[in-house]
Design goal:
4-stranded antiparallel beta sheet; about 500 residues; 9 helices; two-stranded parallel sheet; rod-shaped; 14 strands; alpha+beta; single chain
């Protein structure tokens, strides 16, 4: 039974350890990059810009469109309001239209040896000036129905092709804007990755710090529990007083409270790390550096200057691309002030059609041409828009200058912070060694009855503070290096 119990305990412990996910700093970075929502948004923005870039290229190609329409009309169109009658005359020898006396019913009279027709009232008149007074003998009828067009059902269709020839440089500028926009989206993604890496660094090392402080709290609690037991035994022997016992108990309670706070802080910090990595908040994780003796193993020594930071920082690249985009927007606005030329081709079909008289059937024709649009006067609208675009470009230049100043300040601040962290590390190491030696000496002296209990508790408190400061100094150096790398754009 004992053998089976040992096997069961071993398997339970093995399963508990393997149920926990062990993560290194690089693992956390990779998980965060894979699962971060902002990075997924950045990827979608890149895809969007790529599609916009492809759409911009299509502006070079001809635009082909097909149009169709149907219209029902209540009434038909008739050119004549009623049947018309046309007189039948004669084409004279000079080619003019006239008449002979046999073709009219008017009476005639002689005036100045010339025959002159009489109107219905018997008055002579000039037929050239008053043709309405001519009384014709014969007429040709023009029926109203012959000039009535059936438009109850009208079908119209057209195929149109427009090929841009010169658009004032707008299409070229627009395609260049899309090129810059894609590079800008990539640069913004790089900025997001850098910020995420810094956040992962901070959370990871904060978690490692709290894990080590929790272990330190456990050691302090163990020391105080052992001391409490020793003092209780000494009280029973009459060597120590109840006041000494109460002093140790107070210190033990404070240490247990510190341990509880460290446990809660560690749990919350791991939950935040899981959230950044895209893992469930309650996922049991263990960090590789939680069990390291030294937290400064293979700490990179960053080196660089402001010029390197300006070259590497994605924010500068983004502002530079934004400046180029606004510069091209000036070209787009300027293009609206220039003439545009395009070739056109159309094929139109309709039913009814009038190509061969009015017919109720489908027929069509094609045409080609050139369209030219020359802006003349729009009350200075394009001029003001151009000034507005130029102002936006100047704003981006100023923003870049300001960003460079802030980056220079950030790099210097990070360098000072790393230098300060290194000095703090040296001091914390010396204090830790002194506190350990002081605690060892206090334990020996207490056991030999040379010093009182208060001196031992003071030595333990000093040891705990020195160990805590040592952990904080290591983490500060780690974070300082991470912030300096971020400032340098590495």
């Amino acid at each position: 039974m004992k053998k089976y119990s040992l096997i069961f305990l071993f398997l339970a412990g093995w399963l508990a350890v393997n149920a926990q996910q062990v993560l290194s700093l690089e693992d956390c970075r990779n998980l965060a990059i894979q699962n971060n929502k902002q990075l997924k948004i950045s990827n979608e923005n890149i895809r969007k810009v790529e599609e916009d870039k492809k759409a911009a290229f299509t502006k070079y190609l001809p635009d082909i469109s097909l149009t169709g329409a149907y219209l029902y009309n209540q009434k038909n169109i008739s050119i004549l309001s009623e049947d018309k009658y046309l007189p039948i005359g004669t084409v004279m020898s000079d080619g003019s239209f006239g008449f002979t006396p046999e073709q009219i019913k008017n009476e005639w009279t002689m005036a100045g040896n010339q025959p002159v027709p009489l109107d219905a009232d018997g008055q002579p008149f000039n037929p050239a000036q008053n043709p309405d007074k001519i009384l014709w003998k014969e007429h040709a009828i023009i029926p109203k129905s012959a000039f009535e067009m059936n438009i109850h059902n009208v079908f119209v269709g057209g195929l149109s092709i427009v090929q841009p020839v010169f658009m004032g440089g707008k299409i070229i500028a627009y395609n260049q804007i899309m090129e810059y926009a894609r590079a800008l989206a990539e640069s913004q993604k790089a900025t997001t990755i850098q910020e995420l890496n810094l956040q992962i660094n901070q959370t990871y090392w904060q978690t490692v710090s709290l894990s080590n402080k929790r272990k330190l709290s456990e050691k302090l609690v163990t020391l105080l529990q052992q001391m409490n037991n020793d003092v209780e035994a000494m009280i029973d022997e009459g060597v120590a007083t109840r006041a000494d016992g109460l002093t140790v108990k107070v210190k033990l309670n404070e240490a247990e409270m510190t341990q509880t706070q460290a446990d809660n802080g560690l749990q919350l910090c791991k939950m935040l790390l899981c959230q950044l990595c895209g893992l469930p908040l309650e996922e049991p994780v263990v960090l590789v550096d939680e069990n390291q003796e030294s937290l400064l193993t293979n700490v990179p020594l960053s080196a660089g200057n402001v010029q390197e930071a300006w070259s590497n920082r994605s924010e500068i690249k983004s502002l530079d691309l934004a400046t180029k985009i606004f510069k091209k927007k000036e070209a787009v606005v300027r293009a609206d002030m220039l003439p545009t030329v395009a070739l056109t081709g159309n094929y139109l079909v309709s039913n009814p059609n009038s190509f061969n008289g009015f017919q109720n059937k489908f027929a069509g024709s094609w045409n080609v041409g050139v369209m030219v649009n020359v802006p003349l006067f729009h009350w200075g609208e394009q001029f003001h828009q151009l000034k507005s675009a130029q102002a936006e470009t100047r704003v981006k230049h100023l923003e870049m200058d300001e960003a460079k100043e802030k980056i220079e300040l950030q790099v210097n601040q990070s360098k000072f912070k790393v230098a300060e962290a290194r000095k703090r590390m040296i001091a914390a190491t010396k204090n830790k060694e002194s506190a350990e030696e002081n605690l060892r000496y206090a334990d020996i002296s207490f056991k030999e009855g040379v010093i009182p209990i208060s001196n031992v508790t003071e030595a333990q408190t000093a040891w705990f503070k020195a160990q805590t400061d040592f952990i904080d100094a290591q983490i500060a150096l780690r974070l300082g290096e991470a912030e300096l790398n971020r400032a340098l754009g590495k």
